[in-house]
Amino acid sequence: MNKEPQYDLTLETPRLILMAGEQVLAYKKTITDELLNSADSLKKWVSFFNYNFDKAKATEFIDKTTDMSFNKQFLRYFMFDKETNTFVGSLVLQDIDLRLPSCEIGYWTVVSGQGKGYMTEAIQYITRYLIDTHQFARIEAYIDVKNVKSIDTIERCSFEREGTLKNSDLSADQSKLINEALYAITTPVYFK
């Protein structure tokens, strides 16, 4: 039986600090402000921004996703620009499966952080971290085929498109079926 891995709750890339857990609560106001400023832009692709997203929901989201006792199969990192300490986005590792080990990666950038390459930098770093430090064999992403920016980002990070899943999920607003592109990065598996 595999024991539960200890993930670093603070990671640093050249331009970013990625934080998880209760330490994020010190930045609750700036995160809340950026979430509220970006909700209209993000609701097309991220479902939780679609349900009357307001300050109370932003606070609930931050509290819930930083509670490490609650998070056994996912780990959410909040991303901050090192130079300005501004919140720029979020990256989540979900459906963590320690048997392989593997996970699904999800991500989004707030409006003020878009178009600056932050997410590409974060995904490349977290992918290398999971493979090198935790020996992950597979990291996958499911992306609405219409989300061209997200597809461009994951392809820049060397993820390979494995196929298209037809009618595999609902749109972020839950109004229609969507097709998803399945991307993955895998490592060789050696059995002893």
UniProtKB/TrEMBL annotation:
Residues 31-188 form the N-acetyltransferase domain. The keyword Transferase applies. This is GNAT family N-acetyltransferase. Keywords: Acyltransferase, Transferase. It comes from the Bacteria. Belongs to the acetyltransferase family. RimJ subfamily. The lineage of its organism: Bacteria, Bacillati, Bacillota, Bacilli, Bacillales. It comes from Mammaliicoccus fleurettii. PROSITE patterns: GNAT. The keyword Acyltransferase applies.
